[in-house]
Q: What sequence folds into this?
């Protein structure tokens, strides 16, 4: 077990059986390939470490690989990825999977190999690769025989990047043999603590369990103190311990070990202070110096800090470090013997740890301000003399606490560079902001750093962008541009940096203004990267503002400058813009995107490359080249997975296209996600796209799944459009026509506010709503309500929907003003549904709809062909209807589109069509006379009117109606007509 803490040998393990059972069960589930996370929260001293140590021992005895890691308290910044780098370093010595992962995914080398080369430039893509690599290495380290149990202590001190990795790893849990157990101090989580939202998110995950560790009960405390003392405590002594400790295991242990004299201390601090006062002064000094570093400190650094402290006069000759004082080793040995300190590690990385974090805090809090500053200065001097003793972040921490501002400035800048190398942008940003905050207080800051404040601020803006703080990136970059007004050329060269961040926050007009101002100053000759990027940003902004002519003109100049400079990254960006502008020639746009992808590969820009894969897939899809779109989508996904970016933004977009294109091509089988875990944040997007096939298959839960996505409508308009549209379709299939139309109205209203009144998806929504109205009108006509006010109202509402679809096609056209194949097909479908709604049901309109969907939309071709057959039957062309219905049924059955197949069969029964599996006779259900009666009931006739038509009495008609209701299981005449129509028992 790597780095397992060593609680006092005198501290027995008692009680906690329920908590041990939870942890043991989680280990066994991990062994079976059911990974999980257990979060253990408790107040300080209650016994988290003791519980986890015992659970780890039991897991190891059962064959698990147990690795222990820690978070340390260095303020808001911390050491990036510390618990995971610590765990993977330990695993690397035990398991070849880590080195294999480094070989396959070099991003991990940044974290584990100090000498690994790292580019100055970094991207969010590289960070995702690092996260994927960490998750992959952990997953590969666990097996059924030896599941991996990763214990992370003191999560409340975790740095931002470690919190991000933990969330990422949890989101990836699927079938790995891995268990993560993380502890945190519940009493440290104030209202704005950064761990609080992370815990809230994690606890919503189905594989995360929460163990709230309570203080000992009276019975448990009695068992604990008896084990500590070797015999039951006297009643008064036990009551005193119980009253003071309130069940806190560590406090109780200290009270018992203090000797149980006549007067016991009332506070834990008093107990700990009494423990230290009996130590030799040299040992006390060593402990005080160690406490300033927190819960743990590396043994070489502690040794060096004591030496520097002694040299500065911080220790008397009899204390540690003095030329005639006792040796460091002797003092440390005594501190260990008195259960104050312990040593952990493997010999190569030994650290001195306090027996409990509360002990370190109590010792440190007893130091006077001047003493504390002096010890921090000793640590700083030790780290400055030998940088290998600690990280730049540690050096910056001690420099700030020692009030050495120049040292804090240089150490913070070095810490920012190291954070950048290990792809920790949040920590990089905090260090850079610290540099900026210190700048005015250090007169020679520029000389010390070898760079000016503008350069540092630009680096901070880049870190903010990568850390997912776009507004902060804009604010920093805007301040830089404003602060360089006295140097117009430099200011102009920086405007494209600000413009990039502005585009990320959709500030198009400001981007156009900045790029225009920059181009007025930047020289045309010789060509420069600054001018090339300024042109690229201006072209993109003009395109986003629908200024296509300006965008094309600027893009042409940008590509020329990029060619001359041989700047593949600029070329990739500009070629993508040019492809989007290429509205008249889809094939030409695809060629430009392929060129952009090649240049992105040449530049090593994986995110731009994936963006190109996605844009090519979208280009092929909207051009109606569905088979090509599917191939591009799979190729792009393979590339995303191979680079560890399968769940990046464009990786997710490619997955969306994969599911959409599969559905369009008639593959309605559920998506195979074996071996992959869908991140929580991507689940709504992917779930809504998978609704297309679910509704077409007739999944019983399709409508419930669509309803569950309502909560995400405000998060993403695309989720609202797809889930809402699929829900309308599902409601229509289930006969809930009024609800379907009401949902369409609500959805259009929502997306009108989100996007615009003429969003192109409104054509699809209008066609679906018209289908619901037409079904409702068909049902009404079957019940003899052809000329009723209700049907007239349905027709009027349908006219509004058709008008909205046509207006949208005119005013909401895509760039270039030309609807693609899908848009034209849905517009035709809207017109055909309106024809069915009015009762005309023109076969020619359905024939046109079927033809337009035949660009590759297999499911809608079959559905349109079914409606075409229905229209032909209504027009009296039974033979043609039989041909179209037969093709529709065959396609529906092959695809597994159950609702559509059943609808075609029902049409065949009603129309007496010769279709496979369709019974043409109805005598086995209703008698001939009952059929006659039912037909007249469908026309709305009363029993007396039916009797007059059939020359029988009204009483006999009533008997026939009762028989029909019983045979159909209907509760009334209207329901009987509807059921008979659905089952094909009534002829059209």
A:
């Amino acid at each position: 077990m790597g780095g397992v803490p060593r609680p006092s040998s005198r501290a027995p393990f008692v009680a906690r059986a329920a908590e041990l059972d939870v942890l043991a069960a989680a280990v066994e589930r991990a062994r079976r390939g059911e990974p999980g996370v257990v979060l253990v929260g408790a107040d300080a001293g209650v016994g988290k470490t003791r519980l986890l140590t015992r659970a780890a021992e039991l897991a190891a005895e059962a064959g698990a690989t147990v690795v222990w890691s820690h978070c340390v308290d260095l303020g808001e910044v911390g050491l990036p990825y510390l618990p995971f780098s610590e765990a993977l370093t330990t695993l690397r010595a035990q398991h070849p999977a880590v080195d294999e992962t480094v070989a396959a995914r070099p991003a991990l080398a940044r974290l584990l190999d100090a000498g690994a080369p790292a580019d100055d430039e970094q991207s969010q893509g590289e960070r995702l690769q690092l996260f994927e690599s960490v998750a992959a290495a952990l997953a590969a380290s666990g097996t059924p025989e030896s599941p991996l149990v990763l214990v992370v202590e003191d999560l409340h001190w975790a740095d931002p990047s470690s919190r991000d990795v933990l969330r990422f790893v949890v989101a990836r849990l699927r079938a790995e043999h891995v268990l993560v157990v993380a502890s945190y101090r519940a009493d440290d989580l104030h209202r704005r603590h950064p761990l609080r939202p992370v815990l809230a998110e994690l606890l919503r995950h189905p594989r995360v369990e929460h163990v709230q560790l309570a203080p000992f009960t009276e019975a448990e405390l009695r068992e604990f103190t008896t084990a500590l003392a070797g015999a039951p405590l006297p009643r008064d002594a036990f009551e005193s311990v119980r009253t003071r400790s309130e069940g806190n295991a560590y406090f109780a242990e200290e009270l018992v070990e203090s000797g149980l004299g006549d007067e016991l201390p009332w506070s834990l601090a008093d107990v700990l202070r009494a423990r230290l006062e009996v130590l030799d002064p040299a040992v006390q000094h060593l402990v005080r110096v160690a406490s300033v570093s927190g819960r743990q400190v590396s043994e070489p650094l502690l040794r060096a800090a004591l030496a520097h402290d002694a040299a500065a006069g911080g220790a008397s000759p009899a204390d540690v470090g003095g030329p005639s004082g006792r040796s460091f080793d002797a003092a440390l040995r005594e501190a260990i013997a008195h259960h104050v300190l312990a040593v952990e590690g493997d010999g190569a990385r030994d650290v001195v740890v306090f027996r409990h974090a509360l002990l370190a805090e109590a010792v440190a809090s007893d130091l006077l301000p001047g003493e504390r500053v002096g010890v921090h200065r000793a640590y700083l001097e030790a780290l400055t003399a030998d940088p290998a003793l600690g990280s730049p972040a540690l050096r910056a921490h001690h420099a700030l606490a020692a009030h050495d501002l120049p040292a804090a400035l240089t150490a913070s800048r070095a810490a920012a560079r190291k954070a950048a190398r290990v792809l920790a942008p949040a920590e990089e940003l905090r260090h850079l902001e610290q540099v900026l905050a210190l700048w005015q207080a250090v007169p020679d800051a520029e000389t010390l750093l070898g760079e000016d404040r503008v350069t540092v601020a630009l680096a901070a803006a880049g870190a903010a962008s990568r850390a997912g703080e776009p507004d902060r990136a804009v604010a920093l970059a805007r301040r830089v541009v404003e602060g360089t007004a006295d140097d117009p050329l430099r200011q102009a060269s920086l405007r494209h940096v600000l413009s990039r961040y502005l585009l990320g926050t959709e500030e198009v007009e400001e981007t156009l203004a900045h790029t225009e101002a920059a181009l007025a100053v930047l020289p045309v000759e010789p060509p420069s990267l600054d001018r090339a990027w300024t042109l690229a940003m201006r072209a993109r902004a003009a395109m986003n503002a629908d200024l296509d002519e300006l965008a094309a003109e600027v893009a042409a100049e940008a590509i020329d400058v990029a060619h001359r400079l041989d700047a593949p990254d600029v070329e990739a960006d500009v070629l993508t813009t040019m492809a989007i502008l290429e509205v008249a020639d889809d094939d030409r746009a695809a060629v430009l995107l392929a060129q952009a992808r090649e240049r992105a590969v040449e530049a090593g820009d994986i995110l731009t490359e994936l963006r190109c894969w996605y844009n090519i897939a979208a280009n092929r899809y909207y051009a109606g080249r569905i088979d090509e779109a599917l191939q591009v989508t799979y190729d792009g996904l393979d590339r995303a997975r191979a680079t560890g970016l399968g769940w990046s933004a464009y990786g997710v977009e490619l997955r969306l296209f994969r599911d959409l294109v599969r559905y369009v091509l008639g593959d309605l089988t559920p998506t195979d996600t074996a071996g992959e875990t869908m991140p929580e944040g991507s689940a709504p997007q992917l779930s809504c796209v998978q609704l297309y096939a679910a509704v077409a298959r007739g999944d019983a839960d399709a409508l419930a799944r669509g309803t569950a996505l309502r909560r995400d409508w405000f998060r993403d308009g695309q989720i609202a459009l797809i889930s809402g549209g699929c829900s309308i379709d599902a409601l229509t299939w289930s006969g809930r026509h009024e609800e379907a139309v009401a949902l369409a109205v609500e959805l259009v209203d929502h997306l009108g506010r989100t996007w615009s009144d003429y969003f192109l998806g409104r054509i699809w929504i209008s066609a679906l709503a018209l289908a619901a109205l037409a079904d409702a009108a068909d049902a009404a006509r079957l019940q003899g309500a052809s000329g009723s006010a209700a049907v007239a109202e349905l027709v009027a509402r349908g006219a509004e929907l058709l008008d909205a679809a046509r207006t949208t096609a005119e005013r909401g056209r895509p760039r270039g003003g030309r609807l693609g194949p899908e848009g034209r097909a849905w517009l035709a479908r809207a017109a055909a549904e309106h024809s069915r709604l009015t009762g005309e049901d023109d076969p020619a309109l359905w024939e046109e709809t079927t033809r337009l969907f035949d660009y590759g939309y297999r499911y809608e071709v079959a559905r349109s062909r079914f409606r075409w057959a229905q229209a032909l039957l209504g027009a009296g062309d039974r033979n043609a209807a039989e041909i179209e219905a037969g093709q529709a049924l065959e396609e529906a059955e092959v695809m597994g589109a159950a609702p559509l197949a059943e609808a075609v069969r029902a049409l065949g029964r009603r129309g007496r069509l010769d279709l496979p599996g369709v019974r043409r006779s109805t005598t086995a259900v209703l008698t001939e006379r009952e059929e006659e009666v039912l037909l007249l009931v469908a026309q709305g006739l009363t029993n007396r009117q039916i009797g007059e038509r059939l020359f029988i009495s009204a009483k006999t008609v009533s008997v026939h109606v009762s028989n029909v209701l019983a045979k159909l299981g209907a509760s009334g005449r209207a329901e009987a007509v509807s059921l008979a129509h659905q089952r094909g028992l009534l002829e059209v």
Remarks:
- Residues 1-9, 321-325 have pLDDT under 50 and may be disordered.
